[in-house]
Specification:
Blueprint (H helix, E strand, L loop, with lengths): L4 H42 L4 H6 L2 H23 L3 H7 L2 H10 L3 H134 L4 H22 L1
Length: about 270
């Protein structure tokens, strides 16, 4: 089964907590065992010497006494520590009894020996798991950190490149704005000159048209004045001179011819 890095972390944390718990439990057991051995030593020192009788006691009685003492000590320890039924059942389990028979000690010592063995097994498993999985986890973590740093470096380089491009565009933009402003000023000046020239041409045309109209009006006025003067002269002449119709026609025709010749000479 392949464990993911979060699963490995949770497994190592659980194993660490269990190891710490068993380590503290082992320390408490050693302190209790040392107190029990000290009390046993003091009681044995007060008894009279019964070497021959003690040697002759059956091994079965010694085993029962040692077992009874171990059970009593276990019971007192359990009551003092508030142990659960599962812990008491473990102390009375077949493995602990077998271990006590194998070592020749009582159940209490066999129990704490089993605890030490369990602690050693868990510590060994933790050491093996840590030695097997932790380097890979650290390598993966280091690789991910290096990858993130490389990506950050590339992002920084890309940002710097974009910043340089923007600054270059801004610097060129100032020149482009100046060129556009200059071209706009030139275009405005040229447009002003064109409009001024067109206005002057229109004004000149208007003046010429007005002069032509004035000349035509003056010519018509002179013609009208001449005709009026001729009519007036004729009427005056008729009043002063009595002429017949043929003479009158001849005079009018000669006067008209003279006027036409004068007008033609002026034009």
């Amino acid at each position: 089964m392949i464990l993911t890095p979060p699963s490995r972390t949770r497994l190592l944390r659980s194993m660490a907590g269990i190891s710490v718990f068993f380590f503290l439990l082992t320390l408490a057991a050693f302190s209790q065992a040392s107190g029990a051995s000290a009390s046993g030593t003091s009681s044995s020192s007060t008894e009279p010497q019964k070497g021959q009788e003690a040697k002759e006691q059956p091994k079965k009685q010694e085993a029962e006494k040692s077992r009874g003492f171990g059970e009593q000590l276990a019971e007192e320890t359990r009551e003092a520590a508030g142990e659960s039924d599962d812990t008491s059942q473990f102390k009375q389990s077949a493995s602990v009894v077998w271990l006590s028979k194998l070592t020749g000690g009582n159940l209490q010592h066999a129990y704490w020996l089993a605890v030490l063995l369990n602690f050693a097994v868990i510590a060994g498993v933790m050491f093996w798991a840590g030695r097997k999985y932790l380097p890979g986890m650290y390598r993966n973590r280091t690789a991910s950190i290096q990858k993130a740093m490389e990506e950050a470096r590339k992002a920084s380089e890309d940002a710097n490149r974009r910043l340089s491009e923007i600054e270059s565009r801004l610097s060129r933009l100032d020149g482009e704005i100046a060129a556009m402003t200059a071209n706009a000023e030139k275009d405005v000046a040229a447009e002003e000159a064109r409009i001024k020239a067109a206005a002057e041409a229109d004004a000149h045309k208007i003046v010429e048209s007005a002069e032509q109209e004035i000349a035509a009006a003056a010519k018509a006025a002179r013609r009208d004045l001449t005709n009026y003067a001729a009519d007036l002269a004729i009427s005056l002449a008729k009043k002063q001179i009595h002429v017949d119709a043929g003479t009158d026609s001849s005079l009018v025709r000669s006067f008209a011819d003279r006027l036409d010749s004068e007008d033609g000479g002026k034009n």
